[in-house]
Design a protein that fits this description.
The chain is an alpha+beta fold. It is built from 14 helices and 13 strands. Strands 1, 2, 3, 4, 5, 10 and 11 form a 7-stranded antiparallel beta sheet that branches. The model has no long low-confidence stretch (mean pLDDT 97).
Length: 378
């Protein structure tokens, strides 16, 4: 089947930011999303055009418009966060963002009453009910659909960098999992989630979606929940591998890295160059290493099997991508990757808070709430 790829300005950028609603007194999750969304309706009763619900009623999703630079997209969702807080704060409810909640239990969470979500839970059962997770999605515009799959395949090399920088789910239902990103390994249990197939071109993607639809595995392409996927509706590549990030600074830094990587590869294709890829078994191993060890991971860099600490390669990428970032207007955000590495990623900061408070996980929630409001000290 033919799949229309929407016109999209090259390297335009948009951000989706999932945040969780928590009781300010206890730190536990609260199913208040429907009430918040109702309060944000316009005078004519129409829903907010950018603030939406998600699978669980403890979750609000902030969706930016289409922007020319990362700073604009970040400012967009931060303004929406302020709108949400104006509703939640009088109710004694706060907002946090991380890949998982430190201690809430999955079986206590309420599902949003939509057919799409009921179908998901009916099919996936226990694993679907366990999806008590939050993430960020970054869209980057692609002007030619022939570029989509080569860039997507090239981006798989950088999954561990993105996973390590964003890792924020060390705890699961009150347990220290030993993983920097437990979310990464939970989410890939869904049947169409996780590592993408390395498809050669757009036509191969169309055949894949057709096969999945004909056999009833999915109803449409939006149910392909890969770590990185084409988004034909918006004319973008959508990077979905990251855990939820705990501060505005981390959001900007990671979005800038994604923005620059996509434009860098697009420029290489313009010059008639191939975008380097790695064997799928290296991609899979890299994701596991980053999920397990976070910024302490040693990652595989290329098809030859060369390896390096992920932090060293992130610093190399900052140097390589800085000219691209200047062109895209996101150099300040890209340089904030150094802030993440100097302060530690969210998983590291959460573990430190828990240790400093005698293992108290409500203290971790309180710290996440504070970080989201104040950011990381410069």
């Amino acid at each position: 089947m033919g799949m229309e790829f929407a016109p999209s300005a090259r390297s335009s950028v948009g951000i989706e930011w999932e945040v969780a609603l928590v009781d300010n007194a206890t730190g536990d999750l609260v199913p208040l999303a429907a009430e918040v969304l109702d309060a944000l309706r316009a005078d004519d009763g129409s829903p907010h055009p950018q603030i939406t619900g998600e699978l669980l009623l403890n979750t609000i999703e902030l969706v930016s418009g289409v922007h020319t630079n990362v700073a604009g997209a970040v400012a967009d969702v931060v303004a929406q966060l302020d709108e949400v807080r104006a509703v939640t704060e009088p109710r004694g409810v706060g907002v946090i963002c991380s890949g998982s909640h430190p201690f809430s239990q999955w079986y206590e969470q309420e599902i949003t009453d939509k057919p799409r979500y009921h179908r998901l839970i009916d099919r996936t059962q226990w694993w679907g009910r366990n999806m008590m997770i939050w993430g960020i999605h970054v869209h980057v515009g692609i002007e030619d659909r022939a570029k989509v799959m080569p860039i997507l395949n090239g981006m798989l090399t950088y999954i561990p960098h993105l996973q390590a920088l964003s890792a924020s789910s060390p705890f699961w239902a009150g347990v220290d999992t030993g993983y920097a990103s437990n979310r990464a390994l939970m989410f890939q249990q869904l049947p169409t989630a996780g590592q993408p197939w390395m498809l050669r071109d757009w036509e191969a993607w169309e055949r894949y979606v057709d096969d999945m639809t004909v056999t009833g595995i999915i109803e449409d392409a939006t149910e392909v929940r890969w770590d990185i996927r084409p988004s034909a509706r918006w004319g973008t590549i959508e990077v979905r591998v990251c855990d939820g990030v705990s501060t505005q600074q981390e959001l900007g830094a990671i979005a800038a890295l994604i923005h620059c990587l996509v434009e860098w590869m697009s420029t290489a294709l313009d010059a008639g160059e191939d975008v380097p890829t790695m064997p799928p078994w290296f991609v899979r191993e890299n994701k596991w290493r980053a999920a397990r060890y976070g910024l302490g991971a040693r990652v595989i860099l290329d098809a030859a099997g060369a390896e390096r600490p992920v932090t060293e390669d992130i610093r190399r990428l900052i140097d390589v991508l800085s000219p691209v970032a200047e062109r895209l207007g996101c150099l300040p955000e890209l340089l904030q990757l150094n802030l993440i590495m100097s302060h530690g990623a969210s998983y590291q900061r959460q573990l430190e808070v828990a240790e400093a408070h005698g293992g108290s996980l409500p203290a971790v929630v309180e710290a996440l709430s504070r970080e989201l409001r104040t950011g990381l000290a410069l």
